[in-house]
Design brief:
65% helix; elongated; mainly alpha
Length: 274
């Protein structure tokens, strides 16, 4: 296959790492896949940091992007053009949130061919996992334990999507939540070791999302900027925010009441005795 030929160098690297973990570190083949997954995710930490910063940046400018979408909701093409200009002006890269997943895709394909080779020519050592999975090179549904892995895979995929898609459009987010359930029938035909790899990377993503929410402070929402692409309602909204922040300064000055003239008191004249 063409894909197999393209990923041959990556296959050799993954096979060498797995053999080193199994022979030198004395890890079972299944646990070697788990450690391989962790090593891959550690190598992708710089891309993950960019992903987190991009998501925070989009969250900070979410009100402005929402206003642009409402302003050009009748013209989809114009809306996309204005959003692209807005992204460029504010140094926002929407594709950065997908970089870790895109970078893992070649690893996923290469590992698939490595495990398929394991099925044809089993290496020395036990290919079982935890005493319940007969072989990590067999299809996932070849044993009852594979269905447990599929359930954990689907649950971890949904959890990782919920944690990492806070700024995503609601329709796209719902689609991402449904996709794992749709793909589960395809993933079920993959080797068990491949599902083990994807399940481990999902659990890493879940842990990463929890740590990020606890340790990384949220970026403050940027005030709306007046530009040719900002709707006219943005200015009153900003004035309302300023009024809420400083109600004393925003309170209108009442004109001073005119000072009343001093009241004259008339004293009675007392008649003296004669």
């Amino acid at each position: 296959m063409i894909v197999a030929g393209i990923t041959t160098p990556l296959q050799d690297i993954l096979r060498s790492i797995l053999e080193w973990l199994h022979v030198s570190m004395h890890l079972p083949w299944a646990w070697a896949i788990v450690v391989l997954t962790i090593l891959v995710r550690m190598a992708l930490v710089p891309l993950t940091v960019r992903q987190i910063h991009s998501m925070q940046n989009m969250q900070a400018h979410a009100p402005e992007m929402k206003a642009l979408q409402q302003k050009y909701k009748g013209d989809r093409q114009k809306q996309n053009e204005e959003l692209m200009k807005f992204y460029k002006e504010n140094n926002i890269n929407p594709a950065a949130s997908c970089l870790p997943m895109v970078a893992q895709f070649p690893v996923f394909i290469a590992l698939y061919f490595v495990l398929r080779e394991f099925a044809k020519h089993p290496p020395a050592g036990d290919l079982s996992w935890l005493g319940i999975v007969p072989s990590i090179a067999d299809p996932t549904t070849s044993h009852w334990s594979g269905y447990i892995l599929l359930v954990i895979y689907a649950a971890s995929q949904v959890a990782s999507t919920l944690l990492m898609s806070t700024t995503m459009d609601p329709k796209q987010r719902n689609l991402m939540l449904i996709l794992p359930l749709a793909f589960i029938f395809i993933v079920a035909r993959f080797p068990t070791g491949l599902v083990l790899y994807w399940m481990t990377t999902n659990l890493w993503t879940v842990g990463q999302g929890l740590v990020t929410r606890r340790l990384v402070p949220r970026t403050a929402v940027a005030p709306a900027k007046r530009s040719s692409r900002t709707p006219a309602k943005a200015a009153p909204a900003q004035a309302l925010v300023e009024e809420q922040q400083d109600p004393i300064a925003a309170e209108p000055q009442q004109p001073a009441a005119p000072q009343a003239a001093p009241r004259k008191v008339r004293r009675k004249k007392r008649s003296g005795r004669r």
